[in-house]
Design a protein that fits this description.
- Two copies of one chain form a homodimer.
- By secondary structure, chain A is mainly α.
- In chain A, strands 1-2 form a two-stranded antiparallel sheet.
- Chain A has a single domain, classed as Orthogonal Bundle (Tetracycline Repressor, domain 2).
- Chains A and B meet through helix 7, strand 2, helix 8 and helix 9 of A and helix 7, strand 2, helix 8 and helix 9 of B.
- The structure holds a DNA duplex.
Chain lengths: 188, 188
DNA sequence: TTTTTATCATACATTTTGTATGTTATTTGA
DNA sequence: TCAAATAACATACAAAATGTATGATAAAAA
């Protein structure tokens, strides 16, 4: 098996990620073939198969790496109860993360449907909520089941975030945050 | 070219839709091959190619048909300004639609990521909003650009709707609606 | 430096796709 | 109702893409 710490492996995977993203700038993920990725990356096809089953496997690995980095950043949020403050800080971190990885995210969105990213982001946010708040479906927030509330705000914020990526800089980061500040009631 | 009204064409397409949905109950869309669909539907592969370029083309056509029917139902909403009443009625229609087409939607979600449906639903809702409200990006609702507000509520409601499909009947339709009633402020 | 092993080059069988052609069956519309 | 139109079928085949196997080479680990 391949060692996760072997420099050659790390290098190969990174090149595969970059090549996939490059290709996604020009055509949809559906239309990209494994052989395209290998050609772009100059990595032997048999090496590809040594690491991944198929291109979906590769994409999931790429996403998983992004998830880990985003989750780490989300840890900086010091709020420990589900509140407006928590949500606003979460959004701040999310938007900043997107901004700093704009190259990656806009490549993903360029020729693909939004859904490919939405799943990813929802998963990250819910992981953060559940780890942080020891979230379980029994908890009630302002007379509502927490899972409903979380889904509602997560969906809303992510949808705005995604739109923000595609329509480059229509609003500044600060504008966006202030808009959302108006959308979330002070007492959730 | 194939006539849209020819009974043979209608029948063939319907069978292809049903077969695809059946297959999606058992495996992910990615893993389904055109030849699988033809085998399942007993439709000749050359006939498939006479109608669709590839399986994505077929899926889009299936979605487009669902969209049309949902859009038609959304027309019953009599609210003409973007308000809580409009959103609640929209949600009511959406939830009812999902409920009446549960077979279809749960098949789609069974072995696939949510994203595949989210795109679809966001598109429908935004089409309704824009047609109904002659929505353009200049409009301001309670000091916010309408597009931001729409994205926020659409994302939130859809995320709840999707969850509701997968977790069968955890909450009743009425419960769900009342929860959301609490989440949306009376004056948007 | 030696050993380990990831990558590469190459080859090949198999699967899946995409297209083409003539025949048959069904639908349309006069 | 019947002739004309055409959708669906059976079949065949070329091309594309995948998936796997093997030994040689290069790079990293120890």
């Amino acid at each position: 098996m391949h060692s996760k710490t072997d420099l050659r492996v790390i290098k190969t995977k990174r090149i595969l990620f970059d090549s996939l993203l490059n290709l996604m700038k020009h055509k949809s993920f559906e239309k990209i073939k494994i052989s395209d990725i290998c050609e772009e990356s100059l990595i032997n096809r048999s090496t590809f198969y040594a690491h991944y089953e198929d291109k979906y496997d590769l994409l999931m690995d790429l996403f998983e790496e992004q998830k880990q980095s985003l989750l780490k950043e989300l840890k900086d949020n010091e709020n420990s109860i589900f509140s407006k403050e928590y949500l606003m800080e979460l959004l701040n971190i999310l938007i900043t993360h997107i901004d700093e990885n704009r190259e990656t995210y806009s490549a993903i969105l360029m020729n693909n449907r939004n859904g490919i990213l939405i799943d990813f982001l929802i998963d990250v946010i819910e992981r953060d909520v559940s780890e942080r708040l020891k979230y379980n479906s029994g908890i009630i927030v302002s007379d509502l089941p927490l899972d409903i509330v979380v889904k509602f705000y997560a969906g809303g914020l992510i949808n705005i975030g995604i739109t923000w990526i595609t329509r480059n800089e229509k609003y500044s980061k600060e504008e966006l945050l202030s808009y959302i500040d108006n959308l979330i009631p002070n007492k959730i």
